[in-house]
Amino acid sequence: MGKLIAIRHGQSIWNAENRFTGWVDVDLSEKGVLEAEKSGKLLKDLNLKYDIYFTSYLKRAIKTLEIILKIVGKESKYTKAWELNERHYGALTGLNKAETKEKLGEEQFNQYRRSWDNPPPILDKESEYSSQKDSLYKELKNVPNTESLKNTYDRVIPYFEKNIQEHLKQDKNIIISAHGNSLRALCKYLFNISDKRINELEIPTGNPLIIFFNKNLKIEKCYYLDKEREKKIILNQ
Asked: What is the DSSP letter of 113?
């Protein structure tokens, strides 16, 4: 069975500014570039053969993948899928997280940020941060104006089942460069995390998570490559 390397993009400019980003196409920060470069070196040191690569439509994930592929010595041929985009944060998009928490109160803030099925208020279609008129999504009929994690799960998992897991069964090693919430959705599915516990899962930027499967596509083991920046992995809870 192939191995899956899931990596959240390196720190973005808005990560550094502590802003809700969602579908806004911001670039990597200088620190994010360094995180991507370190990820590439860690993956190169594994001496694995990397076969297939997936990423989102957003440049922070794409650039992270391109940096990694250059370091591991692979051509930059990869598949982009809007289904792997970050969760859409609705009307929270662009807001500072600390200021928003103070305004909304901790309970409501955490409901919007970490709950399973409670989306933030919708983003006005005329907002400067709206993706409704973005040419990237001209083929997408229903561009979201807000999403819960469940909404994100409902696009990530069908895409994974249809387009990615078959390659694992063919003993291919796969790299997915995506986002905090699209990877939280994927981990919920793969790690069998409950609706209640998923709010506890944190995905660090720029730290490859390698997942080993048995022949039934059940996880045998998984771990972050950068031990200094790893987060708790939640399995079957």
From this structure: H
Helix or strand holding residue 8 (H, E): strand 3-8
| Residue 106: strand, helix, or coil | helix
Asked if 234 and 25 count as a contact pair (C-beta separation under 8 A), the reply is: no
Is 230 a residue of the active site?
no
d(CA 19, CA 31): 16
Give me the chain's average pLDDT, please: 94
- pLDDT above 90 coverage of the chain, percent: 85
CA distances from residue 117 to 90, 135, 150 in whole angstroms, order as listed? 14, 29, 5
Read off the pLDDT of each residue in 58-86 and give the average, rounded to a whole number.
95
Spatial separation of the C-alpha atoms in residues 35 and 38, rounded to whole Å: 5
Cβ atoms of 92 and 112 closer than 8 Å: yes
Among 35, 66, 83, 86, the one annotated catalytic: 86
Beta strands in 9-130 (DSSP E): 52-55, 79-80
Q: Summarize the confidence of residues 84-109 as an average pLDDT.
A: 94
- The dihedral through the CA atoms of 111, 144, 131, 155 has a sign that is positive
From the candidates 9, 83, 88, 179, which is the catalytic residue? 9
In tens, the pLDDT along 172-222 reads 999 999 999 999 999 999 999 999 999 999 999 999 999 999 988 889 999
Is 86 assigned a catalytic role?
yes
pTM of the full structure: 0.95
For residue range 106-148, what is the model confidence (pLDDT) as tens digits? 999 888 888 899 999 999 999 999 999 898 898 898 999 999 9
How far apart, in whole angstroms, are the C-alpha atoms of residue 198 and residue 139? 31
